[in-house]
Amino acid sequence: MADHASIPVLFSTPEIAAKVKEMAEAIRKAMGTEFMVIALLKGGFVFSADLVRALHHAGCSPQIDFLTLSSYGEGTESTGTVALAKDITDSVQGKKVLLVDDILESGRTLAYAKELLLKHDASSVSIAVLLEKPGKRKVNFHADFVGFTVPDKFVVGYGLDFANHYRELPFIGYLEKH
Ligand code: IMP
Ligand code: MG
Questions:
Q1: Residue 64, Cβ neighbours under 10 Å: how many?
Q2: Which residues touch 143 (CB under 8 Å, ≥6 apart)?
Q3: C-alpha span between 2 and 35 (Å, rounded)
């Protein structure tokens, strides 16, 4: 693994914090104060942990559950197939859901997750992603709340991994070779 000191920074810790706060305020305006957050694991764990606290400061009282999907193997190219690793454990029936993930790329992961939550009878499913890579969509998919648009690079940190490394970095950077 490359030393993290050699990873160029795209978004610093304070830039991310300001964006998360802004997103929480937009979510409160659009969704009100009562809804259920479903955090996608593993990649969405850092963003969702900061987002729910920002939602609290924005006046929201979300319930929280987790959904684990996998689409990437150990490399940087999507396998194109999404698998359910662990379903939610709480009921979303009749609830407004905010589905939270780190990044929207092909759209396959979030499309799969949204469909699953609608099958579990959520009354609506809105999407919040910290990052979006434009021009990479393989399915027609729209996110309701987007933090930053990123260039076509393999990004790591703040929950995003390469082969399950770098998730702990407090900033978002990119790997030079990709
Ligand atoms: P999608 O299904 O192609 O939209 O990809 C979504 C999933 O792939 C995300 O939840 C991430 O876990 C992972 N992913 C996509 N692009 C990147 C990247 O640049 N770095 C790290 N993970 C990524
Ligand atoms: Mg990942």
A1: 15
A2: 104, 110, 127, 128, 129, 132
A3: 40
* Residue-level length of the chain: 178
Q: 105 CA distance to ligand 2 centroid (A)?
A: 11
Cα 90 off chain centre by = 19
> So what's the pLDDT on residue 60?
98
The two structure tokens encoding residue 91: 């009921």
What is the CA(155)–ligand 2 centre distance, in A? 10
CA distance to 50, 67, 150, per residue, from 85 (Å): 24, 8, 27
For 134-169, the pLDDT digits (tens) are 888 899 899 999 999 999 999 999 999 999 999 999
